[in-house]
Write a sequence for this structure.
């Protein structure tokens, strides 16, 4: 549970414009969809996907680091790592089991024949959208355990897009459609309080000193 007194204390340090911005952004945040990237060799692509999540209102990004252990490129992310929750997994199995346990269906994004086209995808179910490596696509384990497959319609000679481009197109399309429905896609009241607290802490310089002073006095 969030300590409301502590949240109020921190938010009183922020400007009114900052607090209003938090509330406005949180109104459009969702966990109805979550994004998963698998072993992305070029880390700037993961950073770009994170940026797309932030821009289009996806609150969580899941990163499978089974083969490549790299850090987020903060220049590419442009601060998005402060506002998006990053969950890391050391194996595909652990990631899928965790996400399925949270009630998501596993959707593999692939360019293969027979996959569901983007505009036909049923957005009603909470879905985890998996994106694969630049070189090899998604692993066999993910394809085997997927509940469905999704692809972007293309009319040119090229059969695939860069992962960061694909993610941006899919995230924008699905979140835009989602907000036009009566599906309960918003964050819960508790989740909003948790994000307000986390974002306030991320916005205040010397937060450790301020925290220490607050808890000593209270």
């Amino acid at each position: 549970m969030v300590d409301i007194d502590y949240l109020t204390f921190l938010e009183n340090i922020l400007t009114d414009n900052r607090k209003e911005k938090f509330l406005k952004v949180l109104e459009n945040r969702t966990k109805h969809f979550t994004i998963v990237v698998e072993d992305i060799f070029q880390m700037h692509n993961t950073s770009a996907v994170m940026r797309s999540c932030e821009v289009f209102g996806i609150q969580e990004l899941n990163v499978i680091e089974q083969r490549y252990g790299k850090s987020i490129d903060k220049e590419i992310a442009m601060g998005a790592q402060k506002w998006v929750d990053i969950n890391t997994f050391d194996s595909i199995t652990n990631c899928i089991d965790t996400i399925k346990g949270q009630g998501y269906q596993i959707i593999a994004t692939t360019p293969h024949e027979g996959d569901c086209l983007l505009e036909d995808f049923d957005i009603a179910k909470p879905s985890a959208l998996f994106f694969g490596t630049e070189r090899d696509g998604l692993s066999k384990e993910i394809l085997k355990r997927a509940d469905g497959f999704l692809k972007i319609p293309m009319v040119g000679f090229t059969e695939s897009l860069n992962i960061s481009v694909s993610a941006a197109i899919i995230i924008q399309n699905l979140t835009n459609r989602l907000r036009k429905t009566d599906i309960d896609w918003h964050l819960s009241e508790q989740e909003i309080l948790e994000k307000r607290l986390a974002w306030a802490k991320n916005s205040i310089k010397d937060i450790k000193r301020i925290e220490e002073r607050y808890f000593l006095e209270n």
